[in-house]
Every structure is written in C-alpha cells, then in structure tokens.
Design brief:
alpha+beta, six-stranded antiparallel barrel, 12 helices, Thrombin, subunit H, six-stranded antiparallel β-barrel, 40% strand
C-alpha cells in the first residue's frame, strides 16, 4: 500500500496533467508568446513532479528485507513499531506490522533472551501466530532485529509472539557475551508473575508435511510424531523450478526427511540469507546439532486459520542445498549440493498384481528408524494390491557400507484386533534399524534397503498344542523322531514330524531337555533373555551376524538342550564350557560382554509351516 506522501504526489501529478491538457486545447492556438512560455513552465513542473513520484514509488517498492543492517538487543525498547515478512499464500512475501512489548532476559537459557511482540493487522489478528511462520524476519527501524520463533498459548485473543534476537540466529553456536546494558521494563501484560494455564510461551510449531501419507498411515505413529514436537500436516509436491534456490527473507524452506513416491519434510520461514548461508526457523527443529540433511524450497498453497492452531498448507519443491545445523536459536543451511539419502525399494506382491515403490530416506540415527517404519507401512497399506485379512511374508536386505548385508525374513498373520495387519512389518523394520543405529561401535552407513512383501489370502497362523518323542530314552549319536501337534487358525489340527540327533559326546545317564517352540522363545533360550542386542556384539559385523542368525517365526523349532553351561562372549557361543573356565571369567573384568546360560543348545531342527507359530512344549530325554 502506498504511503501518504505517495498519495499526495499522485494527486498533484494527476491535477497538473488534467490542467495542462485543458489549457493546451483551449488557448494554445491563439496564445501569445508569454502564454506559450507559461505552458512550457507547467510542462516542466509536471514532468518534475511525476519524476519525483516515480522515484519515491521505486524507493518504497524496494525489498527492505534485503537490508543487511541488524539491530542490537540493547537498542530494543517497548513500544517500538516494526514489521515482519512471511508468506500466507502462493509465492508472495507479505508484510505485517508489530509492536514491541518488551524483552525477556535469559528466557531460552543463560544469555539467550527473546523480544516479546504483538502482531498487528487484519490478517494476522485473524489467523494468530501460524505454524510455519517461525523464522519470519522481524525489522525494527528498518534493521533486522530477529526471527519470529515463539507463540503465547492457545485460544488467546491477542497474537503475541516471541522473537529470537538476530545475533543468536546468525551465530547459533557463539557465546552470547553481549548483554543488554539495562533492564527493559515490560508492559503490564508481559510482566505478570502468574501465567495462566495454556498461556506459556512455546516454540511456534514446525509443520511436518506429509505428501502421499493419508491420515490412516499416520495414526499408528501419532504418539511418536507428537513426542518429537511436530504438527503433522498434509501437503503435496510441486515441480522444481530454476529459481528455487533464490531465497529471500520471508520465503519458506525446510528439511527433507523422505522423498520419492511419498515425501515428508519440515517447513519454516527464512530469516536471512548471507551469501550461500541460509538462516531459518528461529528455533530448533529437533536440536540435533550438526547435521547433513537435504534442504528444499517449500511453497505455500494457503494458510488455514484455526482458533486452536493455524497452519500453512505447503508443497515441497526442489532441493536447494544442505541443512547443516539444528540449534536452539536457528536452523542453518547452505545452498548448493545436497547430501546422499538412503534408497528404499519396496515391492508389494499379491494374487491381484504387483506394485513397486521407491523412496529416499535421510540417514540419521534418531530419525531413520521411525521414518523407515512410517514409509514401509504407508507404502504397504496404501496401494491397490494390499488388503486386510491376508498373511504377509517379508523378505529383503539392508546393505551397509563395508559390511555384510542384514538379511530380512519373517511372516506376519492378521489378528483379531483393529490393529492394521501391515503394522507389525513396519515395527519389525523399525526395530532392526534401531538396533543398527544404537550400536556402540561405529556409525551405520546404510547404502540401500530392498524389501518385498508377498501377500497370501487368509490367516495362516499356527499354535503348538502338543509334542512327543517316539521314545523316552536314547543313546549318544542316536537320531529321534519328534512329532508335533499344531492347530491352524480355524482349521483341523494336524501332526508334523521332524528329527533331532543326540550328540556323540553326550554323557550316558544325562537328562536332556527337548524344547518344542516358536522362533522367539528359542532365540531367548539359546541367547539369554535379551536376543541379539547391540551390547552383546563385539562390533558392527558381529551385530549383523547376530541379526542374521535370529530364527524366523514361520517355523516350529525343536531344540535339544544339555545341562552343561554355555558361555556367551560378545557374539560367540561357547557351549559345554567346563566350570573351571567359567569360574575364571565369571565375575571378573573382561573385554566385551559375558553371559552364562545354565544350558547349552546341543542340537536343533525345524518344520516350516508358512505362517507365524506360537507356543512351547518342554520334554525330557534320558540318555542311556
């Protein structure tokens, strides 16, 4: 909108032009030389007025946000009038007014103060402080004073916000040695000692934008998403443009967590651009510290106004660089190259057809496990070949740089609850990645994830009802038949058969235990109560070996246990260890992790059934 001075220039120019036109038409042909000189004078005057108006308009049209001048926190005073920039819709950076209420010293932490402001104007008074507005550059007296970063409560009548001082935004890691030289008085509404419930200053929500993720895919993970402090928002993607990387203060950008056939990204407002450095948000994303996460341009579709939580609906545009820092006062990035992400290929096969999906996921120990679970569950459940009430067989591998791949194989049957049938697959993958990324040996550099889910009609699951040996005693070296009565889900029970061999070195007169069970219980019995945790291994290779040795859940297992102890040393299983050697190790410091089991697994066999198995039967076998 033009200011008052511009309005007067327009009025004067228009009046002068109309006057000159009328004067010329009526008098020019018969005017004397003196009148011609008058006409010339008015023409010069009008030209000067119009030129001055054009210059003033051009000055007012300049983007003040391009100014590099900053304001020190010590110069901020209550009552100062200012303005900020953000996008409410499209690509148009809009200006809104604000007034300083005061400064809250040491609010975010030691020497980390904030500026308290009240937003002014029809639009912001209607929407309030909007999720995605964090990072909006705030100007006082034409100088960049900080970034909008905090909001005051919910259902508040006044749009009151907190501003992170610009010194902390541009130097998020620097020691804040400059402290305001005087305590600034706060207005009455900011200085109240008792803050009503729901009226505390808190960071403006960062929308976590899910494109290609319907609400049903997010619901099982809602509590985890909320625990990260995100506001889940649905959005879309848009084509990359050549000018995506040409950011100015007030534009929007954010982190790319997942991209491909579906995407997840954050969205913040840009506070400032200094050469190739980008400063945004004005508060942390997750306080991850130094990171290497792709940075992308985001474009606003519209702003959704809500009395509870207004938010921006955005589209993910092209990648423009790398987010390099996530600190308490700002998220920082660098324009240019983007870091490599982890490719995830998912194939879903069913009698009705086959679907393939491709995703790219950020490689970060605190984010990747949840993102893999979200992406796998969404890709599995939200496609035309998937249906509830089917048995799902998961297979695939996780490739890590410099290590053997982690082999993935398990079967999952539908249950009788309302839990989605594909959710256990997602949780199983989350568990694998949690164990890989929480290992204490070296970072897990994941190169590729390839998964396939085969769907078979019906619920194919089995319960172990009973088991028996062909005879109650055997000699060393003898092979025995073991019969197992299994009960399929809503089917007739049937008998399955396998064999187990007694080791030659088994002492006569020994009582062995035959454990007929499922995969999970045998894993626990042979590896201790905690199966294949990161702390049991002596390195990442050993952890991968443990993961690959875990038994699959679609089989009945028969384990033959002898009463001699087993020594577990890191990933090594040392059965039948003499007590004299155990006494040397047990209770004394040793490198790695040492655990002693009271039994040793002397033999093992299995019966594949094609569906998950549950149950346990314990039998005794006398060695004659």
């Amino acid at each position: 909108m033009l200011g008052d001075s511009s309005y007067h220039f327009v009025a004067v120019g228009a009046i002068a032009s109309r006057y000159l036109a009328a004067y010329h038409q009526k008098f020019m042909l018969s005017a004397r030389p003196i009148l011609r000189r008058s006409v010339h004078f008015f023409r010069v005057l009008a030209t000067a007025i119009l030129a001055l108006f054009a210059q003033t308009t051009a000055l007012q049209g300049q983007d003040v946000s391009s100014s590099t001048a900053t304001m020190a926190l010590a110069d901020v005073r209550p009552g100062m009038q200012g303005y900020a920039y953000t996008i409410f819709a499209g690509d148009q950076v809009e200006k809104f007014d604000l007034v300083v209420l005061g400064v809250l010293e040491n609010f975010l932490g030691p020497r980390q103060s904030i500026i308290l402001v009240q937003l002014k104007g029809t639009k912001v008074e209607y929407t309030g402080v909007v999720a995605g507005m964090s990072g909006s550059p705030v100007y006082l007296e034409g100088k960049l004073a900080g970034a909008l970063s905090l909001k005051l409560g919910v259902f508040t009548k006044d749009p009151i916000a907190g501003v992170t001082p610009i010194r902390d935004v541009l130097n998020p890691l620097a020691q804040n040695t400059a402290i305001a030289t005087q305590n600034l008085p706060l207005p009455e509404q900011a200085a109240s000692s008792s803050v009503p419930t729901g009226s505390a200053l808190e960071p403006i929500e960062t929308p976590l934008v899910f494109s290609g993720f319907p609400a049903a895919s997010l619901k099982p993970f809602a509590s985890e998403i909320q625990s990260y402090g995100f506001v889940a928002a649905q959005g879309g993607t848009t084509e990359a443009r050549p000018d995506d990387g040409k950011l100015v203060a007030g534009d929007m950008a954010g982190m790319v967590l997942v991209e491909g056939d579906a995407s997840i990204n954050s969205a913040c407002t840009v506070t400032a651009v200094r050469d190739d450095r980008v400063f945004l948000c004005g508060h942390p994303f997750l306080s991850l510290g130094d990171v290497h996460i792709p940075m992308a341009r985001t474009r606003v579709v519209t702003t959704l106004s809500s009395s509870l939580a207004s938010t921006k609906i955005v589209n993910l545009a092209g990648n423009i660089g790398t987010i390099t820092g996530d600190h308490i006062t700002a998220v920082t990035g660098k324009l240019g190259a983007t870091p490599v992400m982890v490719p995830l290929d998912l194939t879903v096969s069913a009698p009705s057809g086959e679907k393939k999906f491709h995703f790219e996921i950020v490689n970060h120990p605190k984010l990747t496990p949840l993102l893999v679970a979200l992406t796998v569950f969404n890709g599995l459940s939200q496609n035309s070949v998937y249906g509830e009430g089917t048995t799902l067989h998961l297979s695939g591998e996780v490739r890590l740089k410099g290590h053997a791949p982690v082999q993935i194989e398990n079967t999952f049957a539908p249950g009788d609850t309302l839990t989605p049938d594909g959710l256990p697959i997602a949780l199983a993958m989350q568990s694998v990645f949690t164990r890989l990324f929480t290992n204490t040996f070296e970072p897990a550099d994941v190169e590729r994830i390839a998964l396939k889910v085969d769907s078979a009609p019906g619920r194919q699951s089995f319960t172990i009802d009973s088991a028996w040996l062909e005879k109650g005693e055997a000699a060393p070296g003898e092979t025995l038949r073991v019969r197992v009565l299994v009960h399929p889900y809503r089917g007739a029970p049937r008998v399955e058969e396998t064999t187990v061999r007694v080791p030659e070195q088994t002492a006569r007169g020994t009582m062995l235990r035959v454990l007929v069970t499922d995969a999970d219980l045998l894993n626990r019995a042979s590896r201790g109560f905690s199966a294949a945790s990161a702390t049991e291994a002596g390195g990442l290779d050993q952890l991968i070996a443990l993961l690959n040795r875990e038994r699959r859940n679609d089989r009945v297992y028969v384990g033959l246990f002898s009463p001699s102890p087993t020594l577990l040393w890191n990933d090594k299983e040392l059965p039948n260890v003499p007590l004299s050697q155990i006494n040397v190790v047990d209770g004394r410091p040793a490198p790695g992790t040492v655990q002693v089991l009271r039994e040793s697994l002397a033999g093992e066999s299995s019966i594949p059934l094609g569906g998950p198995v549950a149950g346990v039967i314990s039998l005794n076998l006398q060695i004659r």
